[in-house]
Design goal:
Layout lengths: L4 H11 L1 H11 L2 E3 L14 E3 L8 E3 H5 L15 H5 L12 H9 L1 E6 L3 E8 L6 E5 L8 E5 L3 H6 L7 H8 L5 E5 H7 L15 H14 L6 H12 L4 E4 L10
Parallel strand pairs: 1-9
Antiparallel strand pairs: 1-2, 3-9, 4-5, 5-6, 7-8
Length: 254
């Protein structure tokens, strides 16, 4: 099922947000990392605006970073992706898979099979700057992957063990923490934090680490010392990056 011309135009503009954000960072404007929409919907893509126009309920990412606890990572012992965070891209009560929701949000010129399944589209990859033609299939789907900006294993080692299963499942499907990216690049990232891996496109790093801070604050996670220092060093060189204030869109208890 093909999108209308109006929908295509909207998607193209949304996909250009990362490039616009980079330009505005150089111009001294702030970047707003949008909060996640309720489960089952598509989040509004990030927009870049003057700091004075930042949405109510937002906070500067560097100021929010200063509120996060800093301590060493807990052991990874016992970590199980499905057992601890639920099946991939599945959230009870959500009509479409989370993967399809993020593909629909982040790709342009998308084609669907039915109301949910994205079968093709174009990704303007924020991590590498490449333009990738996505085609769903056994041999091609992995070319575009959905990255957890805060990896699940990192979350497990920085406080997620203390969350309920339902909260961890929400974490694994939260659009604020998810972005469609180049598959091989995501594989290289693995479960690295900001101290060990950053997107190759340097202007995008401001938004990338800001989103990590917002996610960790939302789910009451901590940052490791090297992780904290890496994030702080990046944000120190950015224009203010506004992120959702913790509690403004808190994960729902189920």
């Amino acid at each position: 099922m093909r999108q209308t011309d109006q929908e295509r135009t909207r998607r193209r503009l949304s996909a250009s947000a990362a490039l616009v954000a980079a330009a505005l960072l150089l111009a001294g404007c702030s970047v707003v990392v949008s909060a996640a929409e309720p489960a089952g919907t598509v989040a509004t893509p990030p927009a870049s605006v003057p700091a004075s126009a930042a949405p109510v309920g937002s906070i500067d990412a560097r100021a929010l970073l200063a509120t996060l606890p800093v301590k060493g990572k807990a052991p990874k012992t016992g970590y199980d992706r499905v057992g601890d965070f639920g099946p991939a891209w599945d959230l009870p009560g959500q009509a479409c898979s989370t993967r399809d929701l993020i593909l629909a949000r982040d790709l342009t010129d998308i084609v669907r099979d039915g109301p949910c399944k994205v079968t093709s589209g174009t990704l303007h990859d924020p991590y590498t700057g490449k333009t990738i033609s996505f085609r769903r299939g056994v041999a091609t789907s992995a070319e575009v992957q959905i990255d957890h900006r805060v990896p699940l294993a990192n979350a497990w080692q920085t406080g997620a063990q203390q969350l309920t299963f339902e909260q961890r499942r929400q974490f694994a499907n939260d659009p604020l923490n998810l972005v469609a990216v180049d598959g091989p690049t995501n594989a290289k990232k693995s479960d690295g934090d900001a101290a060990t891996w950053l997107p190759p496109v340097k202007p995008y790093r401001c938004e990338y680490v800001a989103a990590q801070v917002a996610v960790k604050a939302r789910y009451h996670l901590w940052v490791a010392p090297a992780e904290h220092d890496a994030i702080d060093r990046i944000l120190a060189g950015c224009a203010p990056v506004m992120v959702p204030q913790p509690g403004t869109e808190a994960p729902a208890e189920r």
